[in-house]
Amino acid sequence: MKGKAGRQSHKATNTFVFRGFGEKVRALRVSARKYLLQRPQNTEGENTTFIYEAVCKAKDLNVTQEFKTFLRELGNEIQTTGQLVIHENHIASCISTHISNPETSALQPVCDVLVAFANDLPQEFYSKHFYNFLPKLIVHLSMKDPEVIETVFLCIVSLFVVLQKYLYEDFYTLYHVNKFSHLLSKSYPWYINELAAQSLGVLVRKIPKQKLVHFYVPEKTQER
Fold first, then answer.
1. Cβ–Cβ contacts within 10 Å for residue 85, how many?
2. Using the 8-state DSSP alphabet, how is residue 87 labeled?
3. Which stretches does DSSP call E strand in 31-116?
4. N or C end of the chain: which has fewer CB within 10 A?
5. Closest among 189, 57, 72, 69 to 115, alpha carbons compared
6. Residue 11 is part of which domain span?
7. Using CA atoms, how far apart are residues 7 and 3, in angstroms rounded to an integer?
8. SS3 139
9. How far is CA 68 from the centre of its chain?
């Protein structure tokens, strides 16, 4: 009986944590759209990059050794769009290395840097990097830590918003070719199914219904 009570308590706690995710997604969509329209400027009034701003902000919030190492490897050539174009592959490789570490204590700020990078170079990021990063993010969903799971899904939703122009046109690639639909299957816990569905909702709402018919998943694959 004690074990059963413990499981019920754990599920109740998870339900409380994950029910709030939908509200965060809704707030995130609003803030992300505003974010897309407001390119940051430096003190001289010149445009700076989103990734530079994200790094500056994260420095004040995360002082772990992992993040310090990440910043050292990332380098300083991230302040202008021209620098990002030149060092694009190095930046992507650096973020990939650190976001792939399942034990990292700097997941949140690295995810923020990832989204900012996508925001600076959306077309290049989508065509060259998005589908390389997506499975690296999804790997973290095997963790039982609600904070890690929420961080990953909020990162994914942010990328959906930043890259929505390309994802609307190529939803099939996301949903089937790269198997995001798998997150809705019984292979994953119920709460991953729910968060994946809420994340997809950011895109699905604006895709014509007649087009969505092609992405229908048989009901048996949705069973939990």
1. 11
2. T
3. none
4. N
5. 57
6. 2-222
7. 6
8. helix
9. 21
Rounded to whole angstroms, the Cα distance separating 152 from 188 reads 15
Report which of 138, 127, 132, 147 is spatially closest to residue 188, judged by C-alpha positions: 138
Q: 143 near 102, Cβ under 8 Å?
A: yes
**Distance of alpha carbon 132 from the chain centroid:** 12
Measured between alpha carbons, how far is residue 150 from residues 8, 22, 122, 161, 220 in Å? 21, 11, 23, 16, 27
- Whole-model pTM: value is 0.79
pLDDT tens digits, one per residue of 155-205: 998 899 899 999 988 888 998 888 899 999 999 988 888 888 888 888 887
CATH of the domain at 96: 1.25.10
pLDDT in tens, 202-218: 888 777 766 665 555 44
